Amino acid sequence: MIDAVIIDHAFILAAILFCIGLTGVMVRRNLVFVLISLEVMLNAAGLAFIAAGSAWGQPDGQIMFLAVVTLGAAEVAVGLGLTLLLFRRFNSVDIDQLNRLKG
User: Fold this and answer.
1) What is the per-residue pLDDT for 103?
2) Contact (CB, 8 A) for 29 and 96
3) Whole-angstrom distance between the N-terminal and C-terminal Cα of the chain?
4) Partner of 23 at 20 to 30 A CA spacing, among 14, 33, 45, 70?
5) Alpha helix locations (H) across 28-94?
6) Residue 25 to residue 43: CA distance in whole angstroms
7) b or e along 5-23 (b: 16 or more beta carbons within 10 Å of the residue's beta carbon)?
C-alpha cells in the first residue's frame, strides 16, 4: 500500500513539473528560458516513465528515461545553435526574431 502512495506522489510531482515547464514555454519570450522550460518538461516525462516502470516492476521506464535524456541532449545542441545564430544576427534572444531568420 505504501508503494502505491509513493508512486502516486511521483506522478503528481511529474504533473506539477510538466505544468511549470508548459507555463514557461507559453509565457516566456526569451529562447534560453524556453529551452530550460522544455528541459523541465522532458525531466517530468522521464520521472513519469521511471515511476511507471517502478510500479510495474519492469526496467522499461529506465530505458525510456535514457531515450528522454538523449532527446534532451539533442534538443540542447540544436537549441544552443539556434540561440547563438539568433544572437549573432539580431543581438537578441527574443523568440519573435526567429521568424526573421531566412536561409
Assistant:
1) 64
2) yes
3) 58
4) 70
5) 31-56, 60-90
6) 14
7) eebeebeeebeebbeebee
Whether the CB-CB separation of 54 and 61 falls below 8 Å is answered with: yes
Give dist(CA 56, CA 39) in Å, integer. 26
Cell output for 61: 521506464
5 membership: H or E segment, kind and range? helix 2-27
Q: Give pTM, 2 decimals.
A: 0.86
CA distance 33 to 13: 21
Per-residue pLDDT of the chain (103 residues; tens, 9 = 90+): 557 788 999 999 999 999 999 999 999 989 999 999 999 999 999 999 999 998 888 889 999 999 999 999 999 999 999 899 889 988 988 888 878 777 6
Q: Which residue has the cell 506522489?
A: 9
> How many angstroms separate the CA atoms of 90 and 30, rounded?
13
